[in-house]
Amino acid sequence: MGLRDLFIGLLKDFGSAFLPYACHRCKVSTDFGIVFCADCHEKLVTALHPPRLIDDTRCDFAVYTLSSYNSLVADMIRIIKYRPSAKLLKVLTAACQKHGDLKSLIKHDDIIIPVPMHCQRQSQRGFNQAEYLAKNFAQTGSCHFSPALLRTRATRPQADCSEEERRDNLENAFTLDKKLQQNAFAKKRLILVDDVATTGSTLQICADQLKRLKPAEISALVVAHSYKIAV
Fold it and tell me: Could you please report the per-residue DSSP string of 18-54?
């Protein structure tokens, strides 16, 4: 063992003793710097699948998901948003890149666009999880990334709204960035990226703005979808 490895080992031992870490989800003790334990990671890998077309949203375009919004994925996304945890976002994104078979959907000529976050909320959280996901998905698919949309006003979290309130809550909340070279988007497939879709109201309103760019196609990719239960 070299001096560098010895130093790193001592640093980890010190960190574990005086700055104990635990899995952000299940709270089991972990090594220094580890925010997601091996058991939870194995369950995450099992929960992920290639992009799957869903048909129970309000969207008039194709929406794909990498998982169901089950307890583990739901826990991760809530922690990422409300703790908040940029480290856990990196874990989730890396797992999607490795196990989500993104290249089966994303093609070289596509343009990936994140659902934007209002600047006030992004300042409070420190990041926009949709933007981070979109940038990394674009890298995996070797395609273009563009923050083409802007959020013009703060809104209530969609999770706090009833299904009937969701679209009204987002009315006039999004617009195209005025600095865009709009002809660069014409006749391209645009893929909206977000963390979760339920009714699809947010995705639809974003897509309505993107239609002004005259793309060949609009679709969406989310990490998780909360499927409606048939009654």
Answer: HS-EE-TTT--EESTT--S-HHHHHHHHHH--S-EEE
Cα separation, 111 vs 189, whole angstroms: 6
Q: What is the CATH number of domain 44-160+167-225?
A: 3.40.50
Contact yes or no for 190/209 (Cβ under 8 A): no
| Long-range pairs for 32-37: beta carbons < 8 A, 24 or more residues apart | 35/85, 35/87, 35/88, 35/91, 36/88, 36/91
**Each residue of 5-55: pLDDT tens digit?**
555 554 555 444 446 689 999 999 998 889 999 999 999 999 999 999 999
Amino acid at the residue 121: R
| φ, ψ at 175 (rounded to 5°) | -150, 165
Return the exposure string of 110-145: e unless at least 16 CB atoms fall within 10 Å of the residue's CB, then b: bbbbbbbbbeeeeeebeebbbbbbbebbbebbebbb
Any idea of the CA torsion for 104, 194, 150, 106, to the nearest 10 degrees?
A: 0
- Supply the pTM of this predicted model: 0.87
In the chain, CATH 3.40.50 sits at 44-160+167-225
pLDDT per residue over 135-161, tens digit each? Answer: 999 999 999 999 999 998 776 565 655
Q: Are 65 and 223 in contact (CB under 8 A)?
A: yes
Are 221 and 105 in contact, with CB atoms under 8 Å apart?
Answer: yes
